[in-house]
Amino acid sequence: MPRPIQEINAGSMADIAFILLIFFLVTTNMDVDTGISRKLPPMPKEQQETTESVKERNVLIVLLNMNDKLLVEGERLDISELRAKTKEFVVNPVNNPELPEKELLSERLEKAKTAEEKAKIKLSINLLGDLGISKGVISLQNDRGTSYGAYISVQNELTAAYDELRDELSIQHFGKKFEEISEEEADAVKLIYPMAISEAEPKNIGGVK
């Protein structure tokens, strides 16, 4: 006749509990350093320079502090203004010497190293003309205390700025939005407006006084 449950050896129960504890300790991920984990797609290879190696005029520093306050080039900015600010920075419509430099497609063609790259640039010139490529890079930085929601909102505005620029260029040359044009046309537009956003690791920046 089997023993009642109450008579199970207490030592065996302790052994089982200990084994379960070991199991959970081994299999559980323990995040020591939190921070924001969502990342944008990487920049194209030709844009992958560290912000330290880029001229100051070519870098727009966008910072979210621990209080979710937005700072652009050290000045407070409402998030509703970020998209327009980004577009102005990327396009530099009046060739402001304090905004990014531009490189003509023909100049990029002279530097191209592969036949594939040369062919893509030549096609872009045929489709769009000898337009200038912005050398601007957005440097997105945040504090470890930045909320996820605020960080995503800033990412969305930066991405939307590039989306609008691509739409505007597509409509101007092809009469359609970016998502409606052909693959070759889209490659040409992306060459003019690459998604040049650099994301730094979270730091202990603090808040605005």
Describe this structure as you would to a colleague:
It is a single chain. With 209 residues, the protein is α/β, with parallel strands linked by helices. The N and C termini lie far apart (76 Å). It is built from six helices and seven strands. Mean pLDDT is 82; it is low at 30-41 and 46-52. The longest helix is centred in the C-terminal third of the chain and has 27 residues, at 148-174. A hairpin with a 2-residue loop joins strand 2 (70-72) and strand 3.
Determine the fraction of residues in helical runs and give it as a percent range.
Answer: 40-55%
**Gap between N and C termini, in Å?**
76 Å
Lateral strand order in the biggest sheet: 3-2-1-6-7
Radius of gyration over C-alpha positions, nearest whole angstrom: 26 Å
Q: Assign the structural class, choosing from mainly alpha, mainly beta, alpha/beta, alpha+beta, or little secondary structure.
A: alpha/beta
Mean pLDDT: 82
Biggest sheet descriptor: 5 strands, mixed
The H-and-E topology, N to C, reads as: HEEEHEHHEEHHE
